[in-house]
Amino acid sequence: MGSQIRLLGLCLWMYLSSLSFIGAGAVYGREGEVVKGIVLVHGKTAIGRIDDDSVCATLDWWPPQKCDYGKCSWGHASLLNLDLNNKILLNAVKAFSPLKIRLGGTLQDKVMYGTEDCRQPCTPFVLNANEMFGFTQGCLPMYRWDELNSFFQKAGAKVVFGLNALAGKSMKSGSAVGPWNYTNAESLIRYTVRKKYTIHGWELGNELCGSGIGASVAADQYASDVAALRNIVENAYRGIEPKPLVIAPGGFFDSDWFKEFISKSGKSADVITHHIYNLGPGVDDHLTEKILDPSYLDGEANTFSSLKGILQSSSTSVKSWVGEAGGAYNSGHHLVSDAFVYSFWYLDQLGMSAVYDTRTYCRQSLIGGNYGLLNTSTFVPNPDYYSALLWHRLMGGRVLLTTFYGTKKIRTYAHCAKESVSKILYLYMVYVLYVKSDLILSYRKGSQY
Predict the structure, then answer these.
(1) In the annotation, is 324 catalytic?
(2) Among residues 325, 394, 403, which one has the least CA distance to residue 102?
């Protein structure tokens, strides 16, 4: 097809049984230049694991008035106003069977719950530039909580709910101090138990770790607050198995803060979550260049590696998740984060996170902003929805060591096959970012590495 350089994202699936390694050779060219590369996959020992339902997406609280850089991209995608009767939405979630859905985001620490013991009017968020994050306190009415749970049950979703961790705290120079007032949260949890709604996990707080976004909580205080949540869950779900996971802290990785929190929280938390927006602000006009720059993408490996090291050196069995990742923050970038090119970032993140034993990866968002898996207005799937579904259906839990010898513009990840009864391997995501269109691929079988 000529020597024109094209952009090609290639997924190569190779089914090979009972091998200790696989070698895949790639010959690719740029305007007549031919370069060879070899992929080696260790086929016997897993270097990490992911959950069977590792694909996760978020639903947020942002009202339609949420705008970034003069553009308002959220529409009616909030937990408070999303059209739960939309059949495309229902079928999009059902297709995963199940899809983890994390309910939360920036405004979650300003949400109160309209339970019977709530003494305040249950009113929605109101735009106010003088308030933290630009909105007043909002409220989740119990009739809406009922509607949401009805939808999740129909769709077969596994729900993680992010609780308000700032309740009862006072603000001092950006730091939230004092113990968590869990009265309203406990009321919501007990209401949920009485209604027999199934919750996969309760997460405490959003982006309050380290220096925080809007506010921060010290690691020792956060550990105490998570211990309180653990006690609430144990008591509210007494006699009920399995109990929901206790999840924290749901913020950006800070090595010192995470070390202290993990050491002081003991067995209170089941899952450690962190957030990723490694592409920078959504207003950046160079997002596509970043996405197609292997050296830029490689930078996030430091976060995954550091967190894995902290967890391995701790005495707990806590697992790590990416609790929220949208690539570009402030709602993403139209025609980039909702376009085909974003799958180069997204699929690379799924593969990279799995290598470092990250069990679940939550995409911001299922719907809303410019980075939704579904179009905010039409609910029609964006390209990354199909990338997520492909990963969910094909990638097994055992992650294999993969080495590529050649250009840095080819990226390889390998997992054992999902729902396999023998030693079947997938060679996954051979990313060829800039290649000649007449790419040649081959594989070879080996007995030892």
Answers:
(1) yes
(2) 325
Q: Residues near 437 by Cβ (< 8 Å), separated by ≥ 6?
A: 1, 2, 4, 6, 8
Kindly state the DSSP code that residue 79 receives in the 8-state scheme: T
For 174, residues 6+ apart whose C-beta sits below 8 A from its C-beta are: 212, 215, 216
- Among 186, 203, 300, 324, the one annotated catalytic: 324
- What top-level class would CATH report for the domain 50-396? alpha beta
Domain boundary assignment for the chain: 5-40+403-446, 50-396
CA 15 remoteness from chain centre: 28
Length of the chain in terms of residues written: 449
Q: Is the full-model pTM beyond 0.85?
A: yes
> Of 20, 10, 35, 67, which Cα lies nearest the Cα of 368?
67
pLDDT digits (tens, 9 = 90+) for 434-446: 333 333 333 333 3
pLDDT band at 2 (very low <50, low <70, confident <90, very high): very low
Element of type H or E holding 107: none
The reply to whether 116 belongs to the active site is: no
Task: Give 270-295 pLDDT, tens digit per residue.
Answer: 999 999 999 999 999 999 999 999 99
Query: What is the separation of C-alpha 381 from the centre of its chain, rounded to a whole number of angstroms?
Result: 18
Q: How many helices (H) and strands (E) does the chain have?
A: 10, 22
Which of 186, 203, 207, 300 is catalytic? The answer is: 207
